[in-house]
Structure formats: structure tokens, C-alpha cells
């Protein structure tokens, strides 16, 4: 077989392409990479559990290719699942237990010349309490290299952090933090350049670290209507490092969420970064189409449920002016919330997410621990830890989490924004087969009243999930029909948009997603969660258009006032 091969020059090389591949039932820690026979090929990025020889199987997919380089290198994996191990010429250079997480591994590549890179990815469930991706989650645990892999030579000076936090949108004031490693001892300062300008500003450095407040020349404010971006370039000696950012400020005042001082009304949806034919290795073209389609229907924000988002997706959201709630991996975690390893991993993966995405203006808030045991003391402890982690990593954005504990939740004093996942007229409750608008409004009102008590009334309020399944072609008008879903979603959207107390809503969900025939809570026909407004292949159901009409009417009325 002809192995894919790349020569690495002075800068980073993207290792995407068709790699050698083999699939085994051997767990990662028992794998002997020198003994493998690569009998097939697989795409990187790609999910191996769509390949015919291991379709929907669990085990270890091993990817191999050649890279020509030498000396100290850094390998970047932007996200895989469920866990992976990295080998260079047969020697292990790193591993990860964090699905969907960007990781970097620094290693010695040896003498210049061709070398063998192997990435082994395992998608078996780990039922130990510390495991981050658990078998009961209501989204499919695909195996594969979900996101790009790249490699770069280590530079004399390496950039660890280049962070830009907007402070004042009107003045274009930003705080820049730089952390450099390597030969930094003699560096007294770095020169800064904005956009295509010349190096005008200076940042003082001590031991490679520096922080300063600057004014961006000719600042353009980022908003969904004007998604203008800026770049900063930092120069030390002959090396330059750049970052893209947007100037926009998110604040909270009297129960409202403000973007650049103006109260937001969020017409949002939850979106899994998934596709029935590609799993979590969604081609960028599909991601872009999803975004354009959502914008076209008037949606202004996406909750990136329930894991860190890809850099490529956030870049598109920045450029198109789509706001994002980004959250770390978690789903309905109960017993494990008290487990020390689970806690430690949650804290680490959450901090890594914030670090990765901090410069994206589209990310307007952070989330974590979707539907955890937030009515229990152990759950509260972990919620507190993660909120503190996020505030420490980024004091500029509010933090929330999707609670399904309703008025029994004991964490609402900890969050900046109150968010409820709620399924009136779908789970539990009445036996009604036809949509009950009054019942829906009543049950939303209970949450609004709870969030309007004196202790909570100054926090913005979201309905972060609400929905119903619709089987395409079912027109009975009853539960599971397209009509039922369209009525429920449009009325929920209308209620929240018109409610003075609510900041917004995230419908559950953008598209049907692959999950399990039976997840914990409710059967999933055909192994899909069918609460999508569009099918897995993105064919719209009637709800998509109906909700779009409600959004358009609301914003038109608002503009006319
Ligand atoms: C939960 C969960 C979602 C999904 C949804 C549903 O609220 O957060 O991931 O499982 O319910 O469809 O039931």
C-alpha cells in the first residue's frame, strides 16, 4: 500500500488525507503498534465506524501515515473520540482521554527524514466513574479522528498564549495577554501590530509573559449585524504570532444580557456538530450550510451541545455573526459528579475549552454539565468548581448550564445566567395526544415565576431546551407528527420572544441525530433522536419554516416600534 507522506517545512503542516488503517478488538493499552498489518485506508478527519469492516462496531481504529521532518516537533490533534494514543516510530508520544478536545504533544522526532506516525483511537465505553463520555448519553459515541491533525517544528520561541479580551467596544480597548516559552530570558518586550498596519505598540515582557491594555486603531465593533474582525500580530526577534479577535462586550444588567450595551433577544437552537453519514467529522461545507440555513430562518444563536466546538465552526460563526453558547462535555451526569477523577477531568477539559476558544467573538457565554445532578450537594459542588474554572479562565463571559431540575435546582445562585431544559407536552405530564398550548404556557410560566423571585430576578433567563419528536411523513397531527412538533416549537418560540423576563430560547434541536435505540429516558426510533427541525440529511420539517415565521414576525414588530 502507498502510504500518505508529507514533508514538513518551517511551518505547520496539515496532516488531513487518506491514511493507512486497520481495526482491531484490542484495547488501547494492550496495543502493539509494531506488529500491526494495515489492511485498509481511512480518511482523517473521519469516523471509522462508518467503514464497512467495522460499521457501528466498538474497538480500536489505528491510523498510520508518513511524515518527513526531524528535531523537536509539536503534534496538534483538534479532537477525536472516545480516546486516543499517539505513536512516533513505534514509541508512544502522548495520549488523551478527552473527547472533542484540542491537545498538543511536544516530542523529539529524531533525525531529519521520513518517520511513521500512528494514531490509535478507541471507541469502547468506559463505565468507570471517571469516564467523560458515558454510555447513557443521548448522542452516538462515534470512534474516529473527528477534527484535523497537524504538525509543526518547535520554534526557538513558542507561543503558549495570545489572548485578546475586549474591554470597551466604543473605544476599541482590549487587554492582550502573551505567554511565550523557549528562549525568552532576554526578551524585554514584544512589538504589536493591528490588522495590516505597522508595528506601533509595545508590550513589556518578563520571563516571556506580558499583559497590557491597548486601543485598536480604527476599531470596528463585532455584532451579529456587523461581524467585523481584527487581527493582532506579536513580534519577538524574527518571529511573528497572530490572533484573530472581535471587539464586542457582553454584560449583564437587571436580568438582561447585553451585547455592546444593547439587550439581546436570543432566537436560538441547539445544534449537535454531527451528521448521520459523517458522525462528528462533519465536513466544513455542511457546517457552513447549517449556519447559513439557520441564519436564513432568523436564528441568531447556537448552543453547541454538548461538547467543545471545532475551531473551523467557530471561525465561521465569527465571520457570519452567529452567536454561540459553547459548553464542555457532559450529559445527565449523576452518581459520577462526586467522583474525584471525573471532577478533575471535567475541570481540565473545561479549562482547555475556554483556552481554545477565548478569542472567538461569537462565543458569548460558556456552559458545562448539561442536566447534571444539580439538585444534590455533590452536583452543586461540581457546578461550583466548573463555574469557578470558567470565570478564572475568562472573566469576560457569563457562565451557565442547562438544568433539567426545574424548581428543585440548588445551583441557581452560582450561575450568571439561569437556563432551563424543559419538555412540557412531551415527557411526563398529561396523556394528551394533541398539542396543548395552554399546558405549554402554564408550565413555562412556572419556570419564569421561579426565576423572577428577588434572589434570581437580576439574572438573565433562558429556556435552553424544549422540543418534540417528529417522524417525517407522519401527519396525524398527534404526538410524533410533523404538525405537533411545528405547533409546539412555534408556540414555545413565541412565548419566550414575547416574555419580558426571558432573554431567549434554544429549541431542541436543529437536526435529527444518531443516538441509541434506547437511551436512558425514552425510546429513539431507528436509533435517532428525531426532535430535529431538519432531518439528519438536513431536509427541513415543517417546524423549521413555522418557527422561522415566528422569529421574523417578532423582529419585524420590534423594528417597527
Ligand atoms: C435532554 C438532553 C438532550 C436530549 C433531550 C431529549 O434534555 O439535554 O441532549 O437528550 O433531552 O431529546 O430528550
Short description, anyone?
The protein is α/β, with parallel strands linked by helices and 561 residues long. Helix content is 19%, strand content 32%.
What is Rg?
Answer: 24 Å
Record field, number of beta strands = 34
Can you say what the CATH homologous superfamily of the largest domain is?
Glycosidases
Please tell me the CATH architecture of the largest domain by its name.
Alpha-Beta Barrel
Number of helical stretches of at least 4 residues: 7
- What class would the helix/strand composition place it in? alpha/beta
Topology:
Blueprint: E1 5-7, E2 13-14, E3 17-24, E4 40-44, E5 46-47, E6 60-69, E7 72-77, E8 83-88, E9 91-96, E10 103-108, E11 113-122, E12 144-145, E13 149-153, E14 157-168, E15 173-182, E16 189-194, E17 199-204, E18 209-215, E19 230-236, E20 239-245, E21 250-253, E22 256-259, E23 262-263, E24 266-270, H1 284-296, E25 301-304, H2 311-320, E26 323-327, H3 340-357, E27 363-367, H4 377-393, E28 399-400, E29 402-403, E30 418-421, H5 437-451, E31 461-465, H6 482-498, E32 502-507, E33 513-514, E34 528-529, H7 542-560
Parallel strand pairs: 1-6, 24-25, 24-32, 25-26, 26-27, 27-28, 29-30, 30-31, 31-32
Antiparallel strand pairs: 2-13, 3-4, 3-6, 5-12, 6-11, 7-10, 7-13, 8-9, 8-11, 14-15, 15-18, 16-17, 16-19, 19-20, 21-22, 22-23, 33-34
The site of alpha-D-galactopyranuronic acid (ADA) has 12 residues, from loops.
